């Protein structure tokens, strides 16, 4: 390649979320020909152990497989690594320490997007895994912006979120979308002005049912894709594009 910037995607968590990120990168990129698109290599290995089960103590840790993936991407001399999975950022410190390439932090990037909103919302609902919620990845960052976080109850996690998440993983996107829409409606009813879709399979499911609540949603995967495109533009010296 004539340009030294190469993006790596650590995917497989799940496969649809990985494909969704790649699709968003392609759609956002203002390319007129193949050669103007981002160069991306993808490690799409769904056999990485389940992150939710690992956190709950009922499954193997994904960390060894994640570190192996980081090692393989680094062997390809990638410049940046994007991970289209919010939950796996629980292990971000270990991954960042092991990687020569910069690992883009999806939660940081999504929060920066929220900070840029005008007007900035006062209350934001978070739909995410128990791991993401328990560790306060979003809540802590939102608090620094003066934004109140509205999160799922244990009942909502167990009866709606988890079934919705695993519905998408087995290809039942309509069922997943219906369950996620019920969660989104509940958070809006509790005062949320915007919704963080803090699991990368949620936007896929809501898009499947053409949910009207997507208009109120903040998609961290889209923010991550946008960030990758901006990094690519900087490397190419074509930063003039303003992405809506």
Automatic annotation (TrEMBL):
- Keywords for this protein: Isomerase
Carries keyword Ion transport?
A: no
**Full protein name:** Aspartate racemase
> What's one GO MF term for it?
amino-acid racemase activity
Among Pfam families, the record links this protein to:
Asp_Glu_race
The answer, when asked if Isomerase is one of the entry's keywords, is yes
Alphabetized PANTHER family for the sequence: ASPARTATE-GLUTAMATE RACEMASE FAMILY, GLUTAMATE RACEMASE
Q: Mind telling me which Gene3D superfamilies this protein's record contains? A: 3.40.50.1860
What the entry lists under InterPro entries is as follows: Asp/Glu/hydantoin_racemase, Asp/Glu_race, Asp_race
Task: Give the family from UniProt.
Answer: Belongs to the aspartate/glutamate racemases family.
What superkingdom does the record give? Bacteria
């Amino acid at each position: 390649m004539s340009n030294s910037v190469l993006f790596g995607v650590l995917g497989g968590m799940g496969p649809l979320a990985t494909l969704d990120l790649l699709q968003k990168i392609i759609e956002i990129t203002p390319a007129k020909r193949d050669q103007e698109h981002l160069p991306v290599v993808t490690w799409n290995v769904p056999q990485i152990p389940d992150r939710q089960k690992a956190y709950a103590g009922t499954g193997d840790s994904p960390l060894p497989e994640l570190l192996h993936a980081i090692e393989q991407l680094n062997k390809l001399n990638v410049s940046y690594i994007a991970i289209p999975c919010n939950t796996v950022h629980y292990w971000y410190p270990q991954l960042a320490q092991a990687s020569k390439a910069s690992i883009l932090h999806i939660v940081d990037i999504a929060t920066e997007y929220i900070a840029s909103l005008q007007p900035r919302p006062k209350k934001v609902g978070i739909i995410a895994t128990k791991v993401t919620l328990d560790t306060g990845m979003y809540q802590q960052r939102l608090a620094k912006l003066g934004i109140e976080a509205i999160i799922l109850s244990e009942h909502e996690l167990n009866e709606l979120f988890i079934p919705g998440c695993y519905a998408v993983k087995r290809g039942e996107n309509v069922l997943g979308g219906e369950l996620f829409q019920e969660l989104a409606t509940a958070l809006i009813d509790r005062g949320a002005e915007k919704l963080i879709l803090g699991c990368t399979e949620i936007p896929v499911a809501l898009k499947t049912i053409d949910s009207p609540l997507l208009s109120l949603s903040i998609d961290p995967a889209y923010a991550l894709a946008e960030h990758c495109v901006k990094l690519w533009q900087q490397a190419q010296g074509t930063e003039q594009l303003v992405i809506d």
